[in-house]
Amino acid sequence: MLNIKKYSLLITTTLLLLTVSSLFARGVYQTNEDFISEVFSKKPPEKSSIMLSGDVRKRVSSLLGHPYGGLIVKYWEKEGRTAWILKEIGKTEPITFGIVIKENKIEKIKVLEFRESRGWEVKYPAFTRQFNGVGLEANKLNKSIDGVSGATLSYWAMTGVSRVALFLHQHQSSKSK
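Predicted structure:
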């Protein structure tokens, strides 16, 4: 009888710890405003937006493998750098990413808000640093990014929005020339 009580307590404690740890994974790691302020040294430019329609919408859908969830994407541009706030579904919930592009390469990517119960490991700098200096070639990232065990869907979301941000940066840069 005593062994059953110890075993039951161990299982209950383990389940409680797993539940609590997944709840702490969810949340806002950085607000959109704080991310933009950080990127532009507390002097952010005016917010701009791009309407996803026509060929742009088709290309974004091609890069993600499905239509993007919104019609308008917000971005900020200053001195050849653009910062994008993009959302993509992980498993069932959207993940908000902040992405900075300079000279058609990713300068920085961050998870700003995470709403899933799993896959939050993609927020760590050890993972996100892999994206630094990555560009877009033929609808693919030009560098292989190592995934994270247990975070496959979050990894797919992050690589998808990376491709979209790189394309939108190139698209906006070509329009301003």
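Summary: Residues 8 and 14 are 10 Å apart (CA to CA).
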